[in-house]
Amino acid sequence: MANLVVTVDTEEEGLWGGRYPRTGLSVDNIEGIPRFQEICERYGVRPTYLVDAAIVESDRAVEILEPLAREGRCEIGTHVHPWCNPPFEEPNNTYHSYLHNLSPELQYAKIEWLTERIAERFGERPRSFRAGRYGASGATVEALAKHGYLVDSSVTPFQDHSRDGGPDFRSASWTPYRVGRDDILRPVSEGLLWEVPVSVGYTVADFQAADRRRNWAMKSPWRRLRAVGILDRLGLARRVKFCPEQASASDLRRLVDAYLANGAPVMVMMLHSSSLTAGTSPYTPDEAGLERLLTTLESTLSYCTRERKMSPARLVDLDGTPPEIPTLPVVQSQFDSQHSTQPSSKQAQNRMK
Ligand SMILES: [Zn+2]
Hints:
By secondary structure, the protein is an alpha/beta fold. The chain has helices at 33-42, 53-56, 59-70, 104-122, 138-146, 207-218, 227-234, 249-261, 287-307, 346-352, and strands at residues 3-10, 48-51, 75-80, 128-131, 151-152, 177-179, 193-195, 200-202, 239-241, 266-272, 311-313. It has one domain (3-200, 262-339): Glycoside hydrolase/deacetylase (TIM Barrel).
């Protein structure tokens, strides 16, 4: 039975303008967590909240998250945004917003700062990690292992973030693997920890063929002919990230079907905490956008757990033998197996392009 992991990059709002402020950060979006948590719990899901510096420094955020962690209703992991995570030795610019572009020593120091702060604030050391903007490398893996981390989830297969200095994950595995210090893309039999990629794939099960078609279409002159859009509409090369912010419920279902058809042992959903309140992310610009996102989320959780019988887990549970897990009551919701297709938030998608 495949596992379902729901992860939330839990962080300040206002990061969509290409600026990386160190101070004056607002985390009002944390008020959206209780409603999100309630939706997750209807399906037995205990989310993994990957929290950043702004969250650990907010008393209100800790007030909301700490009881959930203490009661075993979620996992608190780590999310380093280098630009607002001490110590500050690097220039404040786009290139250095990627953790893996910093020296191994500075990566280590930033991870150490946040790890210790989380342990202080939540009473338990974090074991799971995702780098802000997915900026992780072998050096990041080594620093994580030294701090006792068991799982990293920074890799987004089929995606290339290198345009402004980010990592190129186009050749990454979409299934979990042991990873070492030399190359975050290379599975090694021993490894220092688990790499559990965010689930990205295609709406057809033959990911490699779909990826080849997409890459072919991206090349000139085919790009000018809008070949990518045509293939996308035909469903022959529609790439989908397992993220209710960026995909419709129907595309998320197709992605789930494709992953399961390929025998995937786990799927990792991701979203941003800033999308859990209205007006704090381009994906949820207003109340209607927020409702759309939560509807897409709930129908996807319903499909995964009730129709596809996926078993909810936290990131940390994927490291070998799962720890003793208290069972959450699964309560009935408005969603049944038929209620599943919602339009995606085109407005939010277009803004992000
Ligand atoms: Zn982030």
